[in-house]
Amino acid sequence: MFEVFEKYLRRHIEISDEDLEIIRAASAEKKLRKWQSILHEGEVWRYNCFIANGCCRLYRFDKNGTDHTLRFGVESWWMTDQESYNHQTPSEYNIEALAASNVIIWPKEKWLELLEAIPALKLFNEKLTANAYEASQRRIFYLISFSATEKYLEFEQTYPSIFNSVPLHMVASYLGISRETLSRIRKDFTKSIKNPPVDPKGF
């Protein structure tokens, strides 16, 4: 399982075998069953979590008990509740596996030690944090400005394998639209693929 992380890290930074062994020694591998949770509302999130394979989601409940998906995580993505992690306060969120998944985790204390000991990892971590902030900005923008169809297209580009892997209502909640609207959009796109417009010139 760690080999997946090693390949991922080597794609992004130059790192020695010795430093990789230090990172490996500080990590723990965890196998998750489908629907198994690794964070429940009210718990403190104390880990960095890398998804070696599978699919997870971050979600929370509103006052009416409806769950809202804030983020999906797929292979070679990170999954976290950043607020609980930063402040070590009880989380308002949940993290669950949407399929049988393998993850690698580092306790916060060990991860901070790794960042101090391995400068290349520290720079990479800072880049990850910056990228996550930029992604959050883009997500807020398209939620408040995109049409339902545009949200669907954006989601397909970001998570090309998700639709066949998770319940439709989770995708709809992530996009901030109703399940019925999402079903209609998907149906329209399926029709357009099966029946492409005919070129009047015959080409």
TrEMBL record:
Gene3D superfamilies linked: Jelly Rolls
Keyword Acetylation (UniProt): no
Keyword Metal-binding in record: no
Domain Cyclic nucleotide-binding: 30-116
UniProtKB keywords: Plasmid
Pfam short name (any one): cNMP_binding
InterPro entries cross-referenced by the UniProt entry: cNMP-bd_dom (IPR000595), cNMP-bd_dom_sf (IPR018490), RmlC-like_jellyroll (IPR014710)
Protein name, as recorded: Crp/Fnr family transcriptional regulator
Organism: Dyadobacter chenhuakuii
Taxonomy of the source species: Bacteria, Pseudomonadati, Bacteroidota, Cytophagia, Cytophagales
